Amino acid sequence: MLRRERVELKTADQVVLMRAAGLVVADALDAVRAALAPGTTTAELDRVAHDVIRAAGAVPSFLGYQGFPASLCVSVNEEVVHGIPGDRVLVDGDVVSVDCGAVLDGWHGDAAFSAVLDTGAGAADPEDVALVAATEAAMWAGLAALAGAQRLGEVGAAVEDSLDGRYGVVEGYVGHGIGTAMHQPPEVLNHRTRDRGARVRPGMCLAVEPMVTRGTADTDVLADEWTVVTTDGSRAAHWESTVAVHDGGLWVLTARDGGVAGLARHGVVPQPLG
């Protein structure tokens, strides 16, 4: 009989430590949002996040991970995930996805957001704006599904149902467990599957992260061996949060309000610890 990989279950005290790491990530992403503007390079965004993480006494999770050369992943337009920051200058109308991880006192946090650059000149495509909003909504639907889930497959079903067939859902890249390492079992799929997934248990900490496109869900990897792009050139969005499942309920560790605003539309109230 096939055995699932062992899932690292956290104590309440360990979840509180992960919350601290999650807030470092939240601070870094807030700083990136403030710096996000036409004329900014993706490398400049990377420096902003790096400085915030280091100032908090934390370490960027991504920097050096399997050779990755930066503290952020910054993916633009048809780039889905794992974009390497560099000298690319952002322009009005770009869809920018920013993924950030930090480790503090041995515990990891991981989150991402997407935004459409729009200085009011009408450069933002309404379809891109809708894509970003739908991807964020799908993430919150997946997070909320954990509140009553028996199996992790319910998360992927909730993400897929939220998108209602309007977009491509990337299947080759998925969410994951997180804790003393950035990537741990179990996988958290973003689509419905016959596999019901791991049993949801208190102590699970997970990164839920749908990646959604305006066209095909098929992807390629560029010659840099990191940047994932849509095969048809359609634009993509990526949202991610780290969430803890504990005896009292859910706590979104990378959301400053613990997930209050995002979970409310699904009738779920987050339950902080500590």
Features:
single chain, 274 residues, alpha+beta, five-stranded antiparallel sheet, globular
Describe the SSE topology.
Layout: H1 12-35, H2 42-55, E1 59-60, E2 72-76, E3 79-81, E4 95-104, E5 107-116, H3 126-145, H4 153-163, E6 168-169, E7 175-177, E8 184-188, E9 205-208, E10 211-213, E11 219-221, E12 228-230, E13 236-238, E14 241-246, E15 249-252, H5 260-264
Antiparallel strand pairs: 1-4, 2-4, 3-12, 4-5, 6-10, 7-8, 7-9, 9-14, 10-13, 11-12, 14-15
Helix pairs in contact: 1-2, 3-4
Description:
The structure is a single chain. The protein has 274 residues and is α+β, with helices and mostly antiparallel strands. It has helices spanning 12-35, 42-55, 126-145, 153-163, 260-264, and strands at 59-60, 72-76, 79-81, 95-104, 107-116, 168-169, 175-177, 184-188, 205-208, 211-213, 219-221, 228-230, 236-238, 241-246, 249-252. Strands 8-7-9-14-15 form a five-stranded antiparallel β-sheet. Strand 14 (241-246) and strand 15 form a beta hairpin. It is globular and about 50 Å long. The model has no long low-confidence stretch (mean pLDDT 96).
Main sheet characteristics: 5 strands, antiparallel
Tally of DSSP β-strands: 15
Total of DSSP H or I helical runs spanning 4+ residues: 5
Give the class from helix and strand content and strand pairing. alpha+beta
For the biggest β-sheet, the strand order reads 8-7-9-14-15
Report the uncertain regions: none
Round the mean pLDDT to the nearest integer and report it: 96
* Measured distance between first and last alpha carbons: 40 Å
Rg, rounded, reads: 17 Å
The arrangement of helices and strands along the chain is: HHEEEEEHHEEEEEEEEEEH
